[in-house]
């Protein structure tokens, strides 16, 4: 009986995996630029909300994390660490860019000729 139950459990899990098809998640997939760009914009905005770089980075990363957790709960989808990597890169560069271009007192970057 235990063997039959184990076989049925494996068959159900394998059936769900095959019904959705193979999961493709390339490092340079079509959605990675969107993850980077949105996180970059959120990073620039978060750099204005907090003077602490770590806090601003965490604020910019939260929407990307929420989206990946949402994806993990959907059928035929899963949490993507590659998407989170692009989110983290965009958020970090966005916060750094926001701190560089928009200093604590406003626009701090001045072009020197």
Low-confidence stretches: 11-17
Q: List the helices and strands in order.
A: HHHHEE
**Averaged pLDDT:** 80
**What is the 3D shape?**
elongated
Q: Main β-sheet, in a few words?
A: 2 strands, antiparallel
Q: SS-based structural class? A: mainly alpha
Q: DSSP strand (E) fraction?
A: under 5%
Radius of gyration: 21 Å
Overall number of strands: 2
What oligomeric arrangement do these chains adopt?
A: single chain
Helix content: 55-70%
Strand order of the largest sheet: 1-2
Distance between the termini: 82 Å
Number of helices: 4
How would you characterize this protein structure?
Strands 1-2 form a two-stranded antiparallel sheet. The termini are far apart. The chain has a domain at 31-102. The relative contact order is 0.16. The model is unreliable at 11-17 (pLDDT under 50). Helix 2 (32-49) runs antiparallel to helix 3 (53-72), helix 2 (32-49) crosses helix 4 (81-101) and helix 3 (53-72) packs antiparallel against helix 4 (81-101). It has helices at 2-20, 32-49, 53-72, 81-101; strands spanning 102-103, 106-107. The longest helix has 21 residues, at 81-101. It has 113 residues and is mainly α.
Topology:
Layout: H1 2-20, H2 32-49, H3 53-72, H4 81-101, E1 102-103, E2 106-107
Antiparallel strand pairs: 1-2
Helix pairs in contact: 2-3, 2-4, 3-4
List keywords for this structure.
single chain, 113 residues, mainly alpha, 4 helices, elongated
Write a concise synopsis of the structure shown:
The protein has 113 residues and is mainly alpha-helical. It has helices at residues 2-20, 32-49, 53-72, 81-101, and strands at 102-103, 106-107.
């Amino acid at each position: 009986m235990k063997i039959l139950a184990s076989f049925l459990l494996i068959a159900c899990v394998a059936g769900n995996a095959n019904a959705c098809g193979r999961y493709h998640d390339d490092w340079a997939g079509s959605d990675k630029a969107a993850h980077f760009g949105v996180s970059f914009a959120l990073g620039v905005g978060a750099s204005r909300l907090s003077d602490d770089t770590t806090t601003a980075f965490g604020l910019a990363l939260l929407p990307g994390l929420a989206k990946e957790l949402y994806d993990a709960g959907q059928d035929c989808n899963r949490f993507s660490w590659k998407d989170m990597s692009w989110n983290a890169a965009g958020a970090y560069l966005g916060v750094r860019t926001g701190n560089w271009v928009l200093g604590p007192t406003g626009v701090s970057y001045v072009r020197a000729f």
